[in-house]
């Protein structure tokens, strides 16, 4: 048997990296998924790529979190708008009352 030690790469030279990007420019973002409930297969409706169920679950969870955050922002805006409407309504009522009182007050000599 020959010596194969020259073809073995030492671990100190091997580099392993992970790519956590959710989307690479020019690639499909896989936001329209199709679930095969019988086979447990997840595919992208746009490009047909097979997706892991965990990836699909994470993507859906991220989309859900974004939607909930947007709902929270909208609720905050509606709450502030309601408060401003009440404030303006009170100011208007006060002006109407002041104008009414001015019109009905007897003229000063």
From TrEMBL:
Organism of provenance: Paraburkholderia sabiae
Protein name as annotated: Bacteriophage protein
Region (Disordered) location: 1-28
Domain of life: Bacteria
Upper lineage: Bacteria, Pseudomonadati, Pseudomonadota, Betaproteobacteria, Burkholderiales
Biased composition (Basic and acidic residues): 16-28
